[in-house]
Design brief:
Helices cover 60% and strands 17% of the residues. A hairpin with a 2-residue loop joins strand 4 and strand 5 (152-155). With 171 residues, it is of the alpha+beta class. A three-stranded antiparallel sheet has the order 1-4-5. The chain has a three-stranded mixed sheet with strand order 2-6-3, with no helix packed on it. It has four helices and six strands. The chain folds into two domains: 1-108, Hemagglutinin Ectodomain, Chain B (Alpha-Beta Complex); 111-171, Head domain of nucleotide exchange factor GrpE (Nucleotide Exchange Factor Grpe, Chain A, domain 2).
Length: 171
C-alpha cells in the first residue's frame, strides 16, 4: 500500500497511530497522577480536621475542668468543716460550693429552664397531673430543675401539672 492510497482510504499510517497512542497514554498518566495527588491531599485534610476536632474537644474539657477546680476546693473546705461539727459553717460551705458550681456552669452557657406558667412539652416533662386551684395545664410543682445549654435542652424540667380546679373535679 502506498501512502497516497492509505490517506485516500482514511487509514492512518502506523507511525501516526503510535504517536496518538503515546499522547493518549501520556494524558492518562497525567490525569492519574493528578488524581492520586488530590486523593493524598484529601486524606491529609481529613486527618488534620480530625486532629483539630480532637484538640478542640480537649481544650473545651480543660477549660471546664479549670473552672470547676475552685468548686472542688470549696467542697473540700465544707467537708473539713463538717468533720469539726460546725453545722452553720457546713451550711455556708455547701451554699458556697453550690453558688460556685452554678456560676462556673453559667459561664459555660448553662441556663435553668423557666417553669412558671403553662406546661411546655418542649422543655418540661410532666410526671404527674393533680387537681389544684391553678388553671388546667399550669405547672404547680417542680420535682427536678431542667437546664438548657445554648439552644439545646440538656435535661427537661420534671414537673407536676394542674389537672384543673379542685371544685370542678368534685362535681
Amino acid at each position: 500500500m502506498t501512502d497516497e492510497f492509505v490517506q485516500q482510504q482514511g487509514v492512518e499510517p502506523e507511525a501516526e497511530q503510535t504517536d496518538k497512542l503515546a499522547e493518549v497514554t501520556r494524558q492518562r498518566d497525567e490525569y492519574l497522577d493528578a488524581l492520586q495527588r488530590l486523593k493524598a491531599e484529601f486524606d491529609n485534610y481529613r486527618k488534620r480536621a480530625a486532629r483539630e476536632q480532637s484538640d478542640l474537644v480537649a481544650r473545651a474539657s480543660e477549660r471546664l475542668v479549670k473552672a470547676l477546680l475552685p468548686v472542688l476546693d470549696d467542697l473540700e473546705r465544707a467537708l473539713d468543716a463538717a468533720e469539726q461539727h460546725e453545722e452553720a459553717t457546713l451550711e455556708d460551705g455547701v451554699r458556697l460550693v453550690q453558688r460556685a458550681l452554678a456560676d462556673a456552669l453559667a459561664k459555660e452557657g448553662l441556663v435553668e429552664i423557666a417553669t412558671d406558667g403553662k406546661f411546655d412539652p418542649h422543655t418540661q416533662e410532666a410526671l404527674l397531673t393533680q387537681p389544684s386551684e391553678a388553671d388546667e395545664g399550669e405547672v404547680v410543682q417542680v420535682l427536678q430543675k431542667g437546664y438548657r445549654l445554648g439552644d439545646r435542652v440538656l435535661r427537661p424540667a420534671r414537673v407536676v401539672v394542674s389537672a384543673g380546679s379542685v371544685r370542678s373535679q368534685e362535681s
